[in-house]
Specification:
Layout: H1 2-20, H2 26-29, H3 35-46, H4 50-63, H5 71-75, H6 78-88, H7 97-122, H8 137-153, H9 158-177, H10 183-212, E1 217-224, E2 227-234
Antiparallel strand pairs: 1-2
Protein backbone atom coordinates (compact mmCIF):
# COMPACT_ATOMS: atom_id res chain seq x y z
CA UNK A 1 0.00 0.00 0.00
CA UNK A 2 1.94 3.07 -1.26
CA UNK A 3 -0.11 5.56 0.78
CA UNK A 4 0.51 3.74 4.07
CA UNK A 5 4.21 3.56 3.23
CA UNK A 6 4.43 7.31 2.66
CA UNK A 7 2.47 8.11 5.82
CA UNK A 8 4.78 5.88 7.86
CA UNK A 9 7.80 7.61 6.35
CA UNK A 10 6.34 10.96 7.39
CA UNK A 11 5.73 9.60 10.87
CA UNK A 12 9.34 8.42 11.20
CA UNK A 13 10.58 11.75 9.82
CA UNK A 14 8.84 13.91 12.42
CA UNK A 15 9.70 11.54 15.23
CA UNK A 16 13.32 11.57 14.06
CA UNK A 17 13.46 15.34 14.37
CA UNK A 18 11.96 15.12 17.86
CA UNK A 19 14.34 12.30 18.80
CA UNK A 20 17.41 14.33 17.83
CA UNK A 21 16.78 16.80 20.64
CA UNK A 22 16.64 14.08 23.31
CA UNK A 23 20.39 13.56 23.42
CA UNK A 24 21.60 17.02 22.44
CA UNK A 25 23.31 19.60 24.60
CA UNK A 26 21.07 22.40 25.79
CA UNK A 27 22.68 24.90 23.44
CA UNK A 28 21.75 22.89 20.35
CA UNK A 29 18.53 21.42 21.70
CA UNK A 30 16.90 24.85 21.85
CA UNK A 31 16.99 25.11 18.06
CA UNK A 32 16.08 21.53 17.11
CA UNK A 33 12.36 21.62 18.04
CA UNK A 34 11.74 24.55 15.67
CA UNK A 35 13.16 22.93 12.53
CA UNK A 36 9.98 21.01 11.65
CA UNK A 37 7.40 23.78 12.26
CA UNK A 38 9.52 26.37 10.48
CA UNK A 39 10.10 24.07 7.50
CA UNK A 40 6.41 23.20 7.28
CA UNK A 41 5.34 26.84 7.49
CA UNK A 42 7.82 27.98 4.84
CA UNK A 43 6.78 25.05 2.64
CA UNK A 44 3.13 25.99 3.06
CA UNK A 45 3.81 29.61 2.13
CA UNK A 46 5.68 28.43 -0.97
CA UNK A 47 2.55 26.59 -2.13
CA UNK A 48 0.26 29.50 -1.27
CA UNK A 49 -0.34 30.61 -4.85
CA UNK A 50 -2.83 30.12 -7.66
CA UNK A 51 -0.57 27.87 -9.72
CA UNK A 52 -0.27 25.36 -6.86
CA UNK A 53 -4.02 25.54 -6.29
CA UNK A 54 -4.74 24.84 -9.96
CA UNK A 55 -2.47 21.78 -9.93
CA UNK A 56 -4.14 20.47 -6.80
CA UNK A 57 -7.58 20.81 -8.39
CA UNK A 58 -6.39 18.69 -11.33
CA UNK A 59 -4.81 16.13 -8.96
CA UNK A 60 -8.02 15.87 -6.97
CA UNK A 61 -10.15 15.51 -10.09
CA UNK A 62 -7.92 12.72 -11.43
CA UNK A 63 -7.64 10.78 -8.16
CA UNK A 64 -10.38 11.70 -5.67
CA UNK A 65 -13.24 13.20 -7.68
CA UNK A 66 -15.84 10.98 -5.99
CA UNK A 67 -14.02 10.49 -2.69
CA UNK A 68 -15.77 11.48 0.53
CA UNK A 69 -14.89 10.48 4.09
CA UNK A 70 -15.53 11.81 7.57
CA UNK A 71 -12.63 9.83 9.05
CA UNK A 72 -10.49 12.97 9.37
CA UNK A 73 -13.05 14.48 11.76
CA UNK A 74 -12.20 11.70 14.22
CA UNK A 75 -8.62 10.96 13.17
CA UNK A 76 -7.47 14.44 14.21
CA UNK A 77 -7.98 13.46 17.87
CA UNK A 78 -6.38 10.01 17.61
CA UNK A 79 -2.85 11.01 18.81
CA UNK A 80 -4.37 12.62 21.91
CA UNK A 81 -6.60 9.60 22.55
CA UNK A 82 -3.58 7.30 22.24
CA UNK A 83 -1.77 9.51 24.74
CA UNK A 84 -4.65 9.33 27.22
CA UNK A 85 -5.04 5.59 26.73
CA UNK A 86 -1.34 4.94 27.26
CA UNK A 87 -1.36 6.94 30.48
CA UNK A 88 -4.43 5.07 31.77
CA UNK A 89 -2.62 1.80 31.06
CA UNK A 90 0.34 2.98 33.14
CA UNK A 91 2.84 4.20 30.54
CA UNK A 92 5.72 6.23 31.98
CA UNK A 93 5.62 9.86 30.85
CA UNK A 94 7.99 12.78 31.30
CA UNK A 95 5.50 14.81 33.33
CA UNK A 96 2.83 13.88 35.86
CA UNK A 97 -0.86 14.01 35.00
CA UNK A 98 -1.45 17.52 36.35
CA UNK A 99 1.48 18.98 34.42
CA UNK A 100 0.45 17.14 31.25
CA UNK A 101 -3.04 18.60 31.50
CA UNK A 102 -1.59 22.06 32.00
CA UNK A 103 0.62 21.67 28.93
CA UNK A 104 -2.32 20.35 26.92
CA UNK A 105 -4.65 23.22 27.87
CA UNK A 106 -2.00 25.87 27.24
CA UNK A 107 -0.95 24.41 23.88
CA UNK A 108 -4.55 23.92 22.81
CA UNK A 109 -5.27 27.56 23.53
CA UNK A 110 -2.29 28.62 21.44
CA UNK A 111 -3.12 26.60 18.34
CA UNK A 112 -6.88 27.24 18.48
CA UNK A 113 -6.40 31.01 18.74
CA UNK A 114 -3.73 30.91 16.02
CA UNK A 115 -5.68 28.83 13.50
CA UNK A 116 -9.08 30.39 14.08
CA UNK A 117 -7.62 33.89 14.08
CA UNK A 118 -5.80 33.34 10.79
CA UNK A 119 -8.87 31.73 9.25
CA UNK A 120 -10.94 34.84 9.88
CA UNK A 121 -8.23 37.36 9.06
CA UNK A 122 -7.19 35.74 5.75
CA UNK A 123 -10.56 34.15 4.85
CA UNK A 124 -9.13 31.96 2.08
CA UNK A 125 -11.73 30.10 0.00
CA UNK A 126 -11.58 26.33 0.32
CA UNK A 127 -11.18 24.06 -2.73
CA UNK A 128 -14.86 23.12 -2.35
CA UNK A 129 -15.94 26.78 -2.27
CA UNK A 130 -16.49 27.12 1.48
CA UNK A 131 -14.88 29.79 3.67
CA UNK A 132 -12.00 29.89 6.15
CA UNK A 133 -9.55 27.50 4.50
CA UNK A 134 -6.16 28.77 5.69
CA UNK A 135 -4.76 27.14 7.81
CA UNK A 136 -6.11 23.63 8.50
CA UNK A 137 -7.46 23.33 12.04
CA UNK A 138 -7.83 19.54 11.74
CA UNK A 139 -4.16 19.17 10.83
CA UNK A 140 -3.06 21.53 13.61
CA UNK A 141 -5.06 19.50 16.14
CA UNK A 142 -3.56 16.23 14.93
CA UNK A 143 0.07 17.39 14.90
CA UNK A 144 -0.31 19.14 18.25
CA UNK A 145 -1.51 15.87 19.79
CA UNK A 146 1.21 13.89 18.03
CA UNK A 147 3.92 16.24 19.29
CA UNK A 148 2.71 16.02 22.90
CA UNK A 149 2.57 12.23 22.56
CA UNK A 150 6.12 12.14 21.22
CA UNK A 151 7.54 14.49 23.85
CA UNK A 152 5.91 12.71 26.78
CA UNK A 153 6.17 9.06 25.73
CA UNK A 154 8.41 8.97 22.64
CA UNK A 155 11.69 8.44 24.45
CA UNK A 156 10.53 5.23 26.12
CA UNK A 157 7.89 4.17 23.58
CA UNK A 158 9.12 5.33 20.15
CA UNK A 159 6.51 3.30 18.28
CA UNK A 160 3.78 5.39 19.93
CA UNK A 161 5.39 8.58 18.66
CA UNK A 162 5.70 7.23 15.12
CA UNK A 163 2.07 6.10 15.24
CA UNK A 164 0.96 9.55 16.39
CA UNK A 165 2.77 11.38 13.61
CA UNK A 166 1.56 8.83 11.04
CA UNK A 167 -2.05 9.42 12.10
CA UNK A 168 -1.48 13.17 11.99
CA UNK A 169 -0.09 12.91 8.46
CA UNK A 170 -3.10 10.78 7.52
CA UNK A 171 -5.39 13.51 8.83
CA UNK A 172 -3.71 16.09 6.63
CA UNK A 173 -3.88 13.82 3.60
CA UNK A 174 -7.59 13.20 4.10
CA UNK A 175 -8.20 16.97 4.24
CA UNK A 176 -6.70 17.13 0.73
CA UNK A 177 -8.56 14.07 -0.52
CA UNK A 178 -11.86 15.44 0.82
CA UNK A 179 -11.22 18.70 -1.08
CA UNK A 180 -11.49 20.60 2.20
CA UNK A 181 -8.06 22.26 2.14
CA UNK A 182 -5.22 23.38 -0.06
CA UNK A 183 -1.77 21.89 0.48
CA UNK A 184 -0.60 25.22 1.89
CA UNK A 185 -3.35 25.04 4.54
CA UNK A 186 -2.30 21.56 5.64
CA UNK A 187 1.43 22.32 5.81
CA UNK A 188 0.99 25.52 7.79
CA UNK A 189 -1.60 23.85 10.03
CA UNK A 190 0.90 21.09 10.84
CA UNK A 191 3.55 23.70 11.58
CA UNK A 192 1.23 25.58 13.93
CA UNK A 193 0.29 22.37 15.74
CA UNK A 194 3.91 21.40 16.38
CA UNK A 195 4.96 24.95 17.28
CA UNK A 196 2.05 25.28 19.74
CA UNK A 197 3.20 22.18 21.59
CA UNK A 198 6.78 23.44 21.69
CA UNK A 199 5.63 26.86 22.94
CA UNK A 200 3.58 25.21 25.67
CA UNK A 201 6.68 23.38 26.91
CA UNK A 202 8.60 26.66 26.93
CA UNK A 203 5.92 28.78 28.61
CA UNK A 204 4.30 26.38 31.08
CA UNK A 205 7.30 25.98 33.45
CA UNK A 206 7.59 29.76 33.72
CA UNK A 207 3.87 30.17 34.40
CA UNK A 208 3.97 27.39 36.96
CA UNK A 209 6.93 28.96 38.76
CA UNK A 210 5.31 32.36 38.78
CA UNK A 211 1.95 31.23 40.10
CA UNK A 212 3.43 28.78 42.58
CA UNK A 213 4.91 31.74 44.44
CA UNK A 214 1.42 32.98 45.14
CA UNK A 215 -0.73 30.80 47.35
CA UNK A 216 -3.71 32.82 46.18
CA UNK A 217 -3.74 31.15 42.76
CA UNK A 218 -4.71 27.48 42.56
CA UNK A 219 -5.80 25.10 39.83
CA UNK A 220 -6.80 21.47 39.82
CA UNK A 221 -7.54 19.06 36.97
CA UNK A 222 -10.98 17.47 36.83
CA UNK A 223 -11.17 14.11 35.09
CA UNK A 224 -14.38 12.15 34.56
CA UNK A 225 -15.34 9.30 32.22
CA UNK A 226 -16.90 11.68 29.70
CA UNK A 227 -14.87 14.90 30.01
CA UNK A 228 -11.52 16.49 30.92
CA UNK A 229 -11.34 19.97 32.43
CA UNK A 230 -9.61 22.12 35.00
CA UNK A 231 -10.77 24.51 37.71
CA UNK A 232 -9.00 27.78 38.48
CA UNK A 233 -9.34 29.97 41.55
CA UNK A 234 -7.75 33.19 42.77
CA UNK A 235 -8.24 34.44 46.34
CA UNK A 236 -7.89 38.16 46.99
Amino acid sequence: MPLLKYLLLIGFFFFGIERISFGQEKKNAKLKPWIAPLSLTLGGLAFYNQAAHDKQVIWHHDNYATFQSSADDFLQYSPTLIHIGARILGANAIHKGKEQLGLFLLGTGIYVISTQGLKRIINETRPNGAEHSFPSGHTATAFFGATLLSKELGKEYPWLAVTGYTLAAGTGYLRLANHEHWLSDVLVGAGIGIASAELAYCIYPKLKERFSKSQAFQWEPRVAPNYYAASFSYHF
